[in-house]
């Protein structure tokens, strides 16, 4: 192997080491945020509180670092495979395939074991969402606008940390009339509040911007809470949806509490 190739491998190894150190730091911050929210859950109800937005940012950062780790790990594997001695084509292919499968298994086991308790505790609720309806962003990070729909969780893949979901609403003629399936990362999924667990339901005060299901549709849009302080967390919300003007006025629409979630940071509409 030439000197430049060795230099590249060493540099990629150093980058991978930095990525893993960054991952540990992010997981520590996530753990701190979880402890804060468990100790004082009422803080998210205060106007101007950004705890949930910060937590979303941290999980997005963790996702980006994980993807970078895969990229540099794959590059290193390719470079190290090039060091294997050449032999009969059949033997070499068999050896590489076996190593690849072993590495994949080790990679999965390593990813799960290296997760902090807070991250592991996050994966379990994700797996428990199977069969539930959730809010899902079906557009990519490079899209001009974020599109959110109500979908049903089919499966959560712990190895890739991705949801397999089904949009049960048939598409229009242009998009096809069948139901659509998506594979989405954790950051694109928001569980709805549960009707049978009112104590865990967030209470958004008047003036708070939220993401809510528009009446008689399965699409979610940004809206502002306009109802006075509700007596119970399970009371319906009175909302004004952005860009919903009718005859020069902004109609106020009633939305059930279990179809309203926190507005994701950086939402584009």
Determine the strand fraction and express it as a percent band: 15-25%
What is the number of strand segments? Answer: 10
Helix content: 25-40%
Q: What is the number of independent domains?
A: 3
The global form is globular
* N-to-C series of helices and strands: HHHHEEEEEEEEEE
Q: What's the Cα radius of gyration?
A: 23 Å
- The number of helical runs is 4
Biggest pleated sheet: 10 strands, antiparallel
Average pLDDT over all residues: 79
Low-confidence stretches: 86-113
GO biological process, one term: chromatin organization
Keywords: Chromatin regulator, Nucleus, Transcription, Transcription regulation
Organism: Tripterygium wilfordii
Subcellular location: Nucleus
Provide keyphrases for this structure.
Tudor_SGF29_rpt1; alpha+beta; 269 residues; Tudor_SGF29_rpt2
3D structure, described in words:
InterPro entries: SGF29, SGF29_tudor-like_dom, Tudor_SGF29_rpt1, Tudor_SGF29_rpt2. This is SGF29 C-terminal domain-containing protein. It is a single chain. By secondary structure, this protein is α+β, with helices and mostly antiparallel strands. The chain has three domains: 2-80; 123-191, SH3 type barrels (Roll); 208-262, SH3 type barrels, CATH 2.30.30. It contains four helices and ten strands, in the order ααααββββββββββ. Strands 1, 2, 3, 4, 5, 6, 7, 8, 9 and 10 form a ten-stranded antiparallel beta sheet that branches. A hairpin with a 4-residue loop joins β2 (148-157) and β3. α1 runs antiparallel to α2 (51-81). The protein is globular. The model is unreliable at 86-113 (pLDDT under 50).
């Amino acid at each position: 192997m030439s000197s430049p190739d060795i230099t590249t491998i060493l540099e990629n190894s150093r980058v991978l080491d930095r990525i893993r150190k960054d991952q540990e730091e992010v997981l520590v911050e996530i753990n701190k945020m979880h402890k804060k929210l468990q100790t004082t859950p009422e803080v998210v109800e205060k106007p101007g509180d950004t705890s949930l937005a910060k937590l979303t940012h941290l999980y997005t950062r963790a996702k980006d670092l994980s993807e970078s780790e895969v990229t540099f790990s794959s590059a290193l594997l390719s470079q190290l495979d090039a060091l294997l001695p050449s032999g009969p084509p059949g033997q070499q292919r068999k050896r590489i395939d076996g190593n690849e499968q072993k590495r994949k298994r080790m990679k999965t086991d390593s990813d799960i074991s290296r997760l902090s308790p807070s991250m592991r505790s996050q994966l379990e609720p994700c797996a428990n969402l199977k069969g539930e309806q959730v809010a899902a962003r079906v557009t990519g990070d490079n899209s001009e606008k974020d599109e959110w729909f109500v979908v049903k969780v089919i499966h959560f893949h712990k190895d890739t940390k991705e949801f397999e979901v089904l949009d049960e609403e048939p598409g229009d003629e242009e998009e096809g009339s069948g139901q659509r399936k998506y594979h989405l990362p954790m950051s694109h999924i928001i569980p709805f509040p549960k009707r049978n667990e009112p104590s865990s339901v967030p209470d958004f005060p008047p003036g708070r911007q939220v993401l809510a299901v528009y009446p008689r549709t399965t699409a979610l849009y940004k809206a502002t809470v306009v109802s006075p302080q509700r007596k119970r967390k399970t009371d319906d919300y009175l909302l004004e949806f952005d860009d919903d003007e009718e005859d020069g006025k902004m109609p106020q629409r009633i939305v059930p509490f279990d179809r309203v979630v926190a507005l994701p940071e950086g939402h584009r509409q």
